[in-house]
Design a protein that fits this description.
By secondary structure, this protein is an alpha/beta fold. The protein is built from nine helices and 15 strands. The protein has two domains: 203 residues, DHBP synthase; 82 residues, Rossmann fold, CATH 3.40.50. The chain binds threonylcarbamoyladenylate and magnesium ion.
C-alpha cells in the first residue's frame, strides 16, 4: 500500500469516508483514525499497528452532539468534565451504545470518548462526518508519535494517508478517566493534570493497577512508550559520568559530553520533547538514555509515569 502524505483536510477525510485509515495530528500526539462505525476499517487499525485485539480504542468527536451516538447513561460527573474540559486532552470512559462495533472497544461495554482541541484535528474530524476511532499512530510498543515524520517512520506502507501538521503541542497522551465508577478514577495520567480535574470533581481518584485483577485500562498492561535503548532515571546529571555512547535528557545542564543531549527549559518542554528524543536516540543507536526525574505536579505526574514505564522495560 502507498501511504499518501497530504496537507489537505478534504483529501485525508475522504480516505476515512471510504473505509481507510488515516494518521492525523491532535494536541497530544498523532492518532491513527478510522470511522468508528465501520468494523472493517477499525480492524485495519489493529493490523497496521500490530495492536493486541484486547486493547480498546478512543473515539474522537468534533462536536457534543456526536457523543450521544457513542455513549449512553453519561453520569453527572462525566457531564461536568465534558463541560469543563471538552475540547481538550481528556478521554472519558462511559457506557457505549450498541451502534459502536465491539472491535472498537475490544469487547468492552464501555467506550473512551475524546474531543481534541487542536484546530487541524477538529476540522479533520468535522470533514470526516463521523466519530473517528484512533489510538496513537505508532507501532504497538513504540513511543507515541509527536510529528508526522515519526508516524511515517513506523507506519509507511501500512496506512492509507498521513494528514501532515505541526509537531503536537503537549507531546504526551490524553488523561483517561473512568466515569463508570463513583467517584470517577484516572486510568492513565496524561496531558490534563490531576489538579485541573480535581478543580471540577474534587473526589476523583487514581486507579492503581493490580496485577491480580483484569486491568480496567487494558493498554496499560503492554510495553509502552519505550525506546529500544535502556532508560535510566536519575535525580541529577551529576550522578552520571558522561559517556559518548549514552544520551541525557532533563532540566539541568549535564557536565561533559553525551552522544545526544537535550536540556529542557521547563517540565512542559520536557513532556513535549521526550518521545521525539527517544526516537532520535534509537536512530542514533544509543544504548542508554539517562532521564532526569521531575517533581510530580501538573504535567510532571504524567511525564514521570511515562519515564517509569520506559525505564521498566
Ligand atoms: O491523546 C490520546 O489519547 C491519543 C490521541 C490520538 O487521542 N490516543 C491514545 O490512544 O493515546 P491509545 O490507544 O494509544 O491509548 C488509549 C488508552 C489505552 O491505554 C486504552 O487501553 C485505554 O486508553 N482505553 C481506551 N478505551 C478504554 C475503555 N473503554 N476502557 C478502559 N480503557 C480504555
Ligand atoms: Mg498508544
Amino acid at each position: 500500500m502507498i501511504t499518501v502524505l497530504t496537507r489537505s483536510i478534504a483529501e485525508a477525510a475522504e480516505f476515512i469516508r471510504s473505509g481507510g485509515i488515516v494518521a492525523f495530528p491532535t494536541e497530544t500526539v498523532y492518532g491513527l483514525g478510522a470511522d468508528v462505525f465501520n468494523a472493517d476499517a477499525v480492524a485495519k487499525i489493529f493490523e497496521a499497528k500490530k495492536r493486541p485485539a484486547d486493547n480498546p480504542l478512543i473515539a474522537h468527536v468534533s462536536e457534543r452532539g456526536q457523543i450521544d451516538m457513542l455513549a449512553r447513561d453519561v453520569s453527572v460527573d462525566a457531564n461536568r468534565l465534558i463541560e469543563a474540559f471538552f475540547p481538550g486532552p481528556l478521554t472519558l470512559v462511559v457506557p457505549k451504545t450498541s451502534r459502536v462495533p465491539m472491535i472498537a472497544t475490544a469487547g468492552l461495554e464501555t467506550i473512551g470518548v475524546r474531543m481534541p482541541s487542536a484546530k487541524l484535528a477538529r476540522e479533520f474530524l468535522k470533514a470526516c462526518g463521523t466519530p473517528v476511532a484512533a489510538p496513537s499512530a505508532n507501532l504497538s510498543g513504540r513511543p507515541s508519535p509527536t510529528t508526522w515524520q515519526a508516524v511515517l517512520e513506523d507506519l509507511d506502507g501500512r496506512i492509507d494517508c498521513i494528514l501532515q501538521g505541526e509537531a503536537t503541542d503537549h507531546g504526551l497522551e490524553s488523561t483517561v478517566v473512568d466515569c463508570t465508577v463513583t467517584p470517577p478514577a484516572i486510568l492513565r495520567l496524561g496531558s490534563l493534570s490531576i489538579e485541573a480535574l480535581r478543580s471540577v470533581v474534587p473526589e476523583i481518584g487514581i486507579h492503581r493497577q493490580d496485577a491480580a485483577i483484569a486491568p480496567r485500562s487494558p493498554g496499560l498492561r503492554y510495553k509502552h512508550y519505550a525506546p529500544n535503548a535502556r532508560v535510566v532515571l536519575v535525580d541529577s546529571p551529576s550522578e552520571i559520568g558522561a559517556d559518548t555512547g549514552s544520551a541525557y535528557i532533563g532540566l539541568t545542564e549535564p557536565v561533559g559530553e553525551f552522544a545526544e543531549t537535550m536540556v529542557c527549559g521547563s517540565v512542559e518542554d520536557y513532556a513535549h520533547t521526550v518521545f521525539a528524543f527517544f526516537r532520535k536516540c534509537d536512530k542514533a543507536g544509543i544504548d542508554t538514555i539517562y532521564c532526569q526525574m521531575v517533581s510530580e505536579s501538573g504535567i510532571g505526574a504524567a511525564l514521570m509515569d511515562r519515564l517509569r514505564r520506559a525505564a521498566s522495560h
